[in-house]
Amino acid sequence: RSKDAPVRELGLTCLALCGLLDRKLALEYFPLFLQQVQQAEGEIKLRVVQAVFDLLICHTIPYLCSCNPAGEEVGKRQIVAYLLSLLEDDDAAIQSAACEGMAKLMLTGMVEDDEALKSLVLIYMSPETMQNQELRQCLSYFLPVYCGSSSWNQRRLQRVFVSVLQVLTE
């Protein structure tokens, strides 16, 4: 609750670490982290984005979306769409953190969405991200590993890549 940025950053980081250890605490405070992603700026926003992805990976998307009044499946779609929107953030560090988080969610099989993969391929090919070396390195590693992890993933990337080419040629 502190207005002092370093204190707030450390408090949110501590709360996130406690949430990694305690599922109920993570479920209780997950909405706060999502709210802070929208409201915070700079280093605090980066730490909160990283915390959101860590909590999702540790406790799964369905669990953290289980309190959504619209239902678990709708909550999952909403959270994935929201996380993908972070790839378009103005801050290169936020883009990189969102890219790394989505890559982890896809590699673990928590996100099996063609649109998510399409977004990652498009951002990799975009000239606007050419200067973001952290993002480029993450995707340079992710795409071959993702394809090499299963034949199903290879087929998904083939499907997505054809649609990406169609978007790029239009």
Written description of the protein model:
The chain is mainly α. Helices cover 79% and strands 0% of the residues. It contains nine helices and no strands. The protein has helices at 5-21, 23-39, 42-59, 61-64, 72-85, 92-107, 114-125, 133-149, 151-169. Helix 3 (42-59) packs parallel to helix 6 (92-107) and helix 8 (133-149) packs across helix 9 (151-169). It is globular, with a radius of gyration of 16 Å. The relative contact order is 0.09. The model has no long low-confidence stretch (mean pLDDT 90).
Could you name the ranges where pLDDT drops below 50 across 5 or more consecutive residues? none
The mean pLDDT is: 90
Structural Rg: 16 Å
Oligomeric state of shown chains:
single chain
Distance between the termini: 48 Å
Tell me, briefly, the overall form.
globular
SSE string: HHHHHHHHH
What is the number of beta strands? 0
Q: In terms of structural class, how would the helical and strand content be classed?
A: mainly alpha
**SS field, number of helical segments:** 9
Write a concise synopsis of the structure shown.
The chain has 9 helices and no strands. It has 170 residues and is mainly alpha-helical.
Topology summary:
Blueprint (H helix, E strand, L loop, with lengths): L4 H17 L1 H17 L2 H18 L1 H4 L7 H14 L6 H16 L6 H12 L7 H17 L1 H19 L1
Features:
single chain, 170 residues, mainly alpha, 79% helix, 0% strand, globular
